[in-house]
Amino acid sequence: MANISLQHLDKIYDNNVQAVFDFNLEVKDGEFIVLVGPSGCGKSTTLRMVAGLEDISGGRLLLDGKDITAAPAKDRDMAMVFQNYALYGHMTVYENMAFSLTLRKEDPNVIHKKVLAAAEILGLTDQLNKKPKQLSGGQRQRVAMGRAIVRNPKVFLFDEPLSNLDAKLRGATRREILLLHKRMHATMLYVTHDQTEALTLADRIVCMSMGRVQQVGTPLELYDTPANLFVASFIGLPPMNFFTVKIEKGRAVGAHFTIDLTEKEKELLAEYEGKEVTLGVRPEDVDEGGNVEVQVYSNENLGMNTLVHGRLGEAHSADSAITCKLRGWCDYKAGDVVKVQFVKRHFFDKNTTNAIR
Amino acid sequence: MTIRNMDDAKQIQMDRMRYTKNTLSSRLVYLAILFDVLFFVSIYESDVGNWYYTALIGASIVYNLVFMLVSFLASEGVKNYKISYGYMLLGLGAGQIARIFILPMLAHAALTKRSDPVLKKVVEVPVMEGGQFTWVIVCLALSAACCLSAGLIAIGRSRKLTAYNASLAEMK
Distance (Å, rounded) from C-alpha A277 to C-alpha B45? Predict the structure, then answer.
């Protein structure tokens, strides 16, 4: 059992810079939580506070109902995997994995069993006599994970563990982490700035910006019903397109297009009649056909899809740029005009930036 | 799992040797080097007069250097279960025993003339007197014991590991 409760956590550094504001989260046993956000948003600081590597300035941290806010890192029964692996270069893989248990003066035979079992899980059995410098980046990260596994901690903490790997290896290691979670069913907190990692790994995602939680939800919730403009722009690749539109008599009137609203949208936007709102459209929710004219300036074929970058009308303003992810192989040239429609639309309040629901 | 029976403590102990080093033998060799150094610095403590200034001094210095170098090399070898270094350590241990009968014994048996300030006359005394003689013998004996035990442990463990690896290979 490992339920973690983060209650109103704050982090204020000695120079009075506040990195985390009122962070609240209930992590259930066996849950895989991913903290995602841009650099400097406070996600690593939050993880380090959970690990005990940073003092908690305000709020409470509970592990299985026990207050561990002030407990030292060694007494928290959590294992952390770092971005830079933090392996001992002069030790073999076996020695690296056994090190924490040796320090605890555990029986060498028990250590041996645990190390072999972890190596088996991670596919490192044949590498146990090698030194870290003889391993690839992915293997080194697996050793770092193995070191965490042998401790059999209540909670696993990952601080951007895949950032040092190339794209191919990152994908493979990501799948390994997912398998590891399924196999061990351990509570995991994972920090990343990569939304692909967040979407593929998480049971729930915590999206952060400027030290504050923007939205907590399943990957689908964050993708499908983003709470605000930040989440909408951060989750999804390519990012969502945004346009300022005015709600007028059942229609959304933009600078370069007018679209008819559905009955549901009319109901939703009733109180915004005559006001400006932000319209968000994901590139994959743009289809050919319709009455919105896009002037193409580049065309990227991805095989199954084509990314068409263009603008609405002649203006070069940010409000007129659009990216469309069209199905199939398209061969548009710069200057071509494509007529598109917005299949699914998100609306955000212009002042609060919150989603209109 | 490469290990055959994870509940058998002896089996696990054997399997552990595949991934851990023979640090016991290696540390015993370091101890042997330490006692050798103690011996070597101790033999200059008494006034040996001219007795020691023969080819013996050169030979003992050179052997001492060779001993330290070779034993250090052997300590690294036995750490990785290389059986040949175990035999080398047995040889070095035997050499240390032999050294007891060369320099310390000869120096203890030899007499040198020295003026006695109490009797106010020249007397004949052993080149290496009782206390120092015992000390250097103890140093050499301990150095020899460390080398021999390190060698024996290394040979034993190397043989066991080789046999275990062979049995694993057979299983495959």
Answer: 96
pLDDT in tens, B83-140: 999 999 999 999 999 999 988 888 888 887 777 788 888 888 888 888 888 999 999 9
Architecture of the domain whose range is A241-349: Beta Barrel (2.40)
pTM of the model: 0.80
Measured CB to CB, residues of chain A less than 8 Å from chain B are: 92, 94-95, 108-109, 112-113, 115-116, 120, 125, 128-129
Radius of gyration in angstroms for the set of CA atoms belonging to chain A, rounded to a whole number: 24
Confidence category of residue A287, pLDDT binned at 50, 70, 90: very high
Instruction: Quote the CA–CA distance of A228 and A211 in Å, as a whole number.
Output: 16
Contacts of A125 in chain B (CB under 8 A): 2
Cβ atoms of A20 and A26 closer than 8 Å: no
B169 touches chain A (CB under 8 A): no
Complex-level ipTM: 0.74
CA dihedral A260, A265, A267, A271 (to 10 degrees): -90
Looking at the complex, does the CB of residue B13 fall below 8 Å from at least one CB of chain A? yes
Q: Is residue B1 very low, low, confident or very high in pLDDT (cuts 50, 70, 90)?
A: very low
Flag whether residue B20 sits within 8 Å of chain A, measured between CB atoms. yes
Contact A109 B13 (CB under 8 A): yes
Q: B8 vs chain A: nearest CA distance in angstroms?
A: 10
The CATH number for A4-234, chosen from 3.40.50.300, 1.10.260.40, 2.60.410.10, 3.40.50.150, is: 3.40.50.300
